[in-house]
Amino acid sequence: MNLKEVKLVTTAYLPDQLILTGPMQVAFAGRSNVGKSSLLNRLFNRRGLAKVSNTPGKTQSINYFYIDNQIYFVDLPGYGYAKTSAQERIRWQKLLEHYFENSKVLAGLAHLIDIRHEPTEHDLMLHEWTQPLVKRHLYVLTKSDKVSRTRQVQAAVALAKHFQIDRENIVTFSAETGDNKHLILQWVTSLIE
To answer: What gap in Å lies between CA 79 and CA 124, rounded to an integer?
Structure first.
């Protein structure tokens, strides 16, 4: 996978705008301000393709990036942002439910969690809810450049225990340095093969 050709092809705000069939998809999910857009831009080697903001909750739609004419990277709305209205949170929840429960081509979910904080109740809910719906999961501990190597290992071990998952399904990642970008791309490639 070389990610030479990357284009934003669809922005879905409503269930009938979702792409649920066709080329394979890998989704990226996490709480607001976890660094999803920064991760995608680092993977794409492009600044600003996925919109980065200092304001949590900026991604309010499901965004489909078509990669090398073979796979979609799907940027899901961030969850858990307190200042979002209850009505908006319900809309996002229904949109995500429709996506996860009806997609015929979702091959994997990259679940992003800020390495500096314990997983939230929302993180655990996403983990438990998507286990039967998505075959392959990768847990990405973002912002790894903000903590020591020892803390990175401790966070990965703690997450594996908390979620009862294999340590090999967890990677640390820094959008600042690109640390472990290759591991995320290897995981995506393994979904295609």
So the answer is: 12
